[in-house]
Amino acid sequence: MTKVLFLLSAVVMVVAGFFIFQNREAFVAARVDRQKNDGVIAAEMTKLSNLGDEVVQAKSQVATMTAELNTEQSRLEQINIKLRNAETQAANAAKELEVEQAKIAKYKKEMDGLPQGVTIETINEDINQRKATIAENETKMAEVQKVADQKEAEVKRVQNDLNSLVSRIEERRKSFDRNSMMATIVAVNNDWGFVVISSGEDQGITEDTKLIVTRGTQSLGKLNIVSVDGNRTIANIIPESLQAGLSIAPGDKVILETLAQ
Predict the structure, then answer these.
(1) Exposed (0-12), middle (13-18) or buried (19+): which is 254, by Cβ within 10 Å?
(2) Is residue 223 a contact partner of residue 213, using CB atoms and an 8 Å limit?
(3) pTM tops 0.85, yes or no
(4) Which ranges of the sequence are coiled-coil (predicted)?
(5) Residue 199, Cβ density class (10 Å: 0-12 exposed, 13-18 middle, ≥19 buried)
(6) What are the structural domain ranges in the chain?
(7) What are 66-77's pLDDT values in tens digits?
(8) DSSP strand pairing (210-215 vs 194-197)
């Protein structure tokens, strides 16, 4: 049995070797063709990769050109706007030119109606003369104004002197009125030692005023003011100033102890 298997194996090997020998050239040719095809495929893949790079670059260029196109379109729109504005300004300028030309024509017509010998030059000369006259008058007015200001200052000084004099006269009059003041005692309280006088602030009496009580030509005593109202004064009797054997009574007169100067 072992020999049979060995013989079968040998036969199979011989047959396989025979087929291998017969197909060897076909295998070699197929391998060569495969290597060629692999080279072609690699070359095509390289071309395809390069083509992809070119496509990406082309897309980038298209985007750049699109942006530039948009920019140029925007510039074109701005130029069109400026052009329309320029056309509008030109139309307005043309209208203004027509108006100015009409004015010039009107002025020429008016110039034709000027008296003989009157020209632009003579008008300008007359204007210059009038300007000179105005300038001269303005100078004179300035001089007159200067004199007026001096007179006004002098009047103010005289007015101030007059006001000062009137003020002094008024103060003197008040001083005379105050010095000639004579009030009357209307009430006496001997228990508390004070009197009520019929004059007050309205007659120029203040709390610092010094008063003397008189009866006829005789001085009775002095008073020290406690309070002053509009037409009434309350004052304490200074005991040590009373004349011996005399007392102050209602109806006695009150005068200033010191006359104002």
Answers:
(1) buried
(2) yes
(3) no
(4) 69-110, 134-168
(5) buried
(6) 8-113, 119-180, 182-256
(7) 888 888 888 888
(8) unpaired
